[in-house]
């Protein structure tokens, strides 16, 4: 029985290791700051889920090492429930990150952004029925140094240098300049001259050369924020998916080892009873 317990303890230790990337992903999502991170979506739930997985895996490891079958049984049940929640979170994250509002612009290395390309849920999250949420995000982006850094970039001497740049973060394309379709003439990264007949687009009228206004009221700014949010979740999904697959694989092996240990224990009790 001691050998089986040691094997199960080793397996649960592997489970413990598999939960670390999940908790680390939650910490990474929750600790990011700046204009690119003004929209916070399900950051703390990922961290909390990772922390719970760590605690449950630690309980399973101690239960196997100290031969506490009751603790192990609770561990298996709790781990199954948490893996189910993790799978649900992954499905949600992939659904949210599906679709992009980026579209190429002729003669530009950067892309412009529109809301229509993103998932309906993500659009509602930023541009839906809660204006206060967007106002908070807008104030965060405007108060960050996202656009001011772009304005102070001295590498753009002629317009073509700006047109051929790959703007990063994404808000620099959505919030710090007018949409290309408006036909504004480049003066500097955050100063643009309006044409005589601008395109009939609401964003064109919303643009202002005022550093405190720019395109923060534009739909393209909302789309840029969603683009950053989507990119964050695409990166997080890779770590979560790899950790989840490894966690499920090791968990299945752990269940098998636990079941074998119970069978071995029953056999020894039966054998001991027959000897007497």
Provide a brief overview of the structure.
With 276 residues, the chain is mainly α. It has 2 domains: 2-99 and 229-275; 102-226, no CATH class.
Word description of this protein:
The chain is mainly α and 276 residues long. The chain has ten helices and four strands, in the order H-H-H-E-E-H-H-H-H-H-E-E-H-H. The strands form two sheets. A two-stranded antiparallel ribbon has the order 1-2. Strands 3-4 form a two-stranded antiparallel sheet. Strand 1 and strand 2 (111-113) form a beta hairpin. It starts with a helix and ends with a helix. The mean pLDDT is 78. InterPro entries: TET_plant, Tetraspanin/Peripherin. The chain crosses the membrane at residues 7-30, 42-65, 72-97, 238-258.
Strand order of the largest sheet: 1-2
Number of domains: 2
Spatial gap, N to C terminus: 21 Å
Helix content: 55-70%
> Which oligomeric state applies?
single chain
Query: What percent strand?
Result: under 5%
| Poorly predicted runs of 5 or more residues | none
Give the overall form: elongated
Give the beta-strand count: 4
Write down the Rg: 27 Å
Number of helices: 10
List keywords for this structure.
276 residues, mainly alpha, 2 domains, two-stranded antiparallel ribbon, 10 helices, 5% strand, elongated, TET_plant, Tetraspanin-2, membrane
